[in-house]
Amino acid sequence: MFLMSLKGAMEKVIIIGTGCAGLTAAIYTARANLNPLVLEGREPGGQLTTTTLVENYPGFPEGIDGPELIMNMHQQAERFGARFRFGVVEAFEPATGYRRLQVDGEWLEAQTVIIASGASAKWLGLENESKFKGHGLTSCATCDGAFYRDVPVAVIGGGDTACEEAVFLTRFASKVYLIHRRDHLRASAILADRALTHPKIEPIWNTIATRYVGDAQGELEAVELLDLKTKERSRLAVKCVFIAIGHTPNTQPFRGKLEMDPNGYLLTRKGTQTNLPGVFAAGDVADPIYRQAVTAAGQGCAAAIDAERYLVDIDSARLEEVGTSLPLY
Ligand code: NAP
């Protein structure tokens, strides 16, 4: 039989990732009786697990903790029969008529794959960084900006994201320092201008952060800075530091196999489908623009519906026919 795997059963759907996109895809495909296998990678639960209160996810008027929201989605998917397995995808092969994923050394096979592996925020890599995440250190102004009303905050970065986040934060913060390692911004002219002309935003040029400083409760209260030109060191009192030095989409196993933009984000067409039939992408892995929990969930839902329709449309015989016309790499 064409779809029989030599080793294990051919899965109908494998979902990669357990953030909002992956878990929503799991809920929908499980409810559609597709018995999805969901792979949890190095950051189970995705970026929401690194934030505290989520106030902008519809349906929770008092807000909900990021980890709790993810746990609820996980349980909801399990209730409908989704199966979860820890495993990092190491390789991907667009085999004829089905797809192969190497997970911790084992090859898994599936008729459809939903890639919801997310994007990881880049961090500075300072020694005491992990200690302050969620305690005055974050990578998402939209998620956490409203917690810092009438206090000074800092944004680190010089690109479009840093400028957008700095301007967004002026709604809440008393002052926003924009700390950049160069003497000019990389951001597009319009966003740079909007940031630099804002009365609440003060740029600090040619400067890097070298250390986070906490108070007795472990909340961030300052950041130590180094002026790269003068070599002077200083301490800046801020209640929150927003790191905006870019995201890296988790698409490494798919390089050279699936179409991506120059930054490595998966490109989709016809809804959530990638350039390969039966392979869909949802959430931050394919979205450099919105990057919100609710948009990721929406895209996860769309990918599940796209996968379900693909499976309905293609019976075994037709799948073989389509498979022979798939691009092979
Ligand atoms: P980005 O353009 O890659 O900019 C990252 C910034 O962080 C750069 O200024 C970089 O400095 C700095 N940086 C990187 N590593 C650093 C480190 N270790 N320490 C200190 N600074 C560091 O990233 P992005 O701003 O997130 O934008 C990503 C993409 O999304 C871009 O294509 C952008 O145009 C797009 N985007 C568009 C919009 C919009 O159009 N509304 C909004 C957001 C993002 P250097 O300048 O020295 O390299």
Looking at this structure, what is the CATH superfamily of the largest domain?
FAD/NAD(P)-binding domain
- Estimate the helix proportion, in percent: 10-25%
Beta content: 25-35%
Low-confidence stretches: 1-6, 325-329
Give the number of DSSP strands. 19
Please tell me about this protein's structure.
By secondary structure, this protein is an alpha/beta fold. It folds into two domains: 11-121 and 247-325, 3-Layer(bba) Sandwich (FAD/NAD(P)-binding domain), CATH 3.50.50.60; 130-243, FAD/NAD(P)-binding domain (3-Layer(bba) Sandwich), CATH 3.50.50.60. 25% of the residues lie in helices and 27% in strands. It is built from eight helices and 19 strands. It has helices spanning 20-31, 66-79, 129-132, 141-144, 160-169, 189-196, 293-313, 316-324, and strands spanning 11-16, 37-40, 53-54, 64-65, 83-86, 89-93, 99-103, 106-115, 119-121, 137-138, 152-156, 175-179, 201-204, 207-214, 220-227, 233-237, 240-243, 247-249, 279-281. The strands form five sheets. Strands 1, 2, 5, 6, 7, 8 and 19 form a seven-stranded mixed β-sheet that branches. α1 (20-31) packs parallel to α2, α1 (20-31) runs parallel beside α7 and α5 runs parallel beside α6. The protein binds NADP nicotinamide-adenine-dinucleotide phosphate (NAP). The site of NADP nicotinamide-adenine-dinucleotide phosphate has 17 residues, from α5.
